[in-house]
Specification:
Helix 1 packs antiparallel against helix 7 and helix 5 runs antiparallel to helix 6. The radius of gyration is 28 Å and the shape is elongated. Helices cover 70% and strands 2% of the residues. By secondary structure, it is mainly α.
Length: 431
């Protein structure tokens, strides 16, 4: 992903200037008049900074967001921005995060608090600690929703110019937050109300309960990650059963990813189809070795059993809720554009796009790999077979892009081949 350093630093400077300007014009009296509450919230947000959960799409949910929002609703933007800054500094010191980028995101956070204050205090005329009842609850929720959007747009613009994210992937990447951010702001609202009405002790109890919830969520995420790793390890073991296809799934996945990127897939979708391609043959776990590893041609009965592996794989993956949609790519990767494939004999665009991409990459790697019953086909022959399959076996819209990817792969392999190395050495010696 290309970065735009000039735009990145210009945008960063704008955020710095806006944050400093807001700070200079802010009312700091609530901070100076409430030193003890400031120390209390600073302690909470410092601890909350280390309670982060990966919620998908390379996005993080942190408890300090709820604590900062509670501080805003209780004492205003200057107070909240100050404790947020304290939390960020402590996080940088203890985690070694990139200082400049973290400071840029901190300035975005400061802007967020002042935008939220504008909505909560100025637009709705709400009272500290949600003292105004139902009206203040609506005001707080509105402020949280608006500041969430402002934060995402500003953060993504910064990360896009830094070459970390693609700006066009903003709305796709918002999906994980739809289920995690609302609870954060609700927790912040509850925390503000409890602190304003019940003081330090009950607020501490409430935060301890949130810590328990966060630890549970993080442990659940680790458990799901462990199961996920086991699934992908199983896919590697299946490839390893046959020395001829030891790297097959990896090669198919790499080419699938490249085609997806050329088709304009968003980063998260490209990663998902890459993982689906890694698992495309996982159903072979249900095929006995006497068929899977047979060196001669399969008879009709054996072919019938072998053709069940996409169905077996799809059923295995469909039960795993953290791999949504992967089953369709796995089930249909042996379908053909003309409807003569298996297991469901569907045709054309009835075949899921993921499956159409995986299918052509699977065929390419099969042709370019030695098998017990034949040697790998030469590059030119394999490319010609892909061309012949355009509109019959393969999606005609994908074939040109696939040929470009396969040719580039073949060229890279040729450069590193023993013959090419020997040729370069001879030329270098003669020179």
């Amino acid at each position: 992903m290309k970065s735009s350093p000039a735009k990145y630093y210009i945008l960063s400077a704008v955020f710095f200037i806006v944050a400093i300007a807001l700070g200079l014009t802010a009312d700091w009296e609530p901070l100076f008049d409430n030193v003890a509450p400031f120390a209390f919230f600073a302690l909470l947000i410092s601890a909350g900074s280390f309670l982060r959960i990966d919620i998908g799409g390379n996005n993080i949910m942190a408890l300090n967001d709820a604590i900062g929002f509670a501080a805003l609703l209780t004492y205003g933007p200057a107070f909240a921005a100050s404790i947020f800054l304290v939390g960020m500094v402590i996080q940088i010191v203890f985690t070694g995060d990139a200082v400049f980028r973290r400071l840029v995101l901190t300035s975005v956070g400061v802007i967020d608090f002042f935008v939220a204050s504008l909505v909560y205090y100025d637009l709705f005329g709400a009272l500290p600690g949600l003292a105004g009842g139902a009206r203040d609850i609506v005001a707080a929720f509105s402020a949280g929703l608006i500041v969430w959007m402002v934060d995402r747009v500003c953060s993504y613009a910064t990360l896009s110019f830094a070459g970390v994210r693609k700006m066009r992937g903003l709305f796709k990447q918002l999906k994980p937050y739809l289920f995690s951010v609302p609870p954060l702001y609700i927790w912040g609202m509850v925390g503000s109300y409890i602190f304003a009405n019940s003081g330090y002790l009950m607020t501490s109890v409430f935060v301890l309960l949130l810590l328990v919830v966060f630890v549970f969520m993080r442990n659940q995420k680790k458990y799901l990650d462990t199961v996920r790793d086991m699934v992908f390890s199983m896919a590697k073991m299946i490839d390893a059963r046959d020395s001829y296809t030891a790297k097959h799934s990896h090669e198919v996945a790499v080419n699938t990813l490249k085609i997806a990127e050329k088709l304009g897939f968003l980063e998260e979708d490209a990663q998902a189809i890459y993982e689906a391609a890694l698992l495309h043959d996982i159903g072979k776990v249900g095929i006995r070795d006497s068929i899977l590893l047979k060196e001669s041609s399969l008879d009709e009965g054996e072919w019938h059993i072998m053709r069940q592996h996409p169905v077996i794989g799809a059923e295995l993956v469909a039960s795993l809720r953290f791999l949504p949609g992967y089953d369709k790519g796995i089930r249909h990767h042996h379908e053909r554009w003309d409807g003569k494939g298996y297991p469901d004999n569907i045709a054309g665009e009835e075949i899921p796009l993921w499956a159409r991409i995986i299918a052509i990459c699977d065929a390419w790697d099969a042709m370019r790999t030695d098998r017990p019953y034949r040697k790998a086909l030469p590059v030119e022959v394999a490319l010609d077979q892909i061309k012949k399959g355009c509109g019959t076996q393969f999606d005609p819209n994908i074939v040109p892009i696939a040929l470009e990817v396969f040719q580039a792969q073949a060229d890279r392999s040729a450069v590193g081949s023993p013959e090419a190395v020997l040729s370069r050495n001879i030329i270098r010696h003669q020179a």
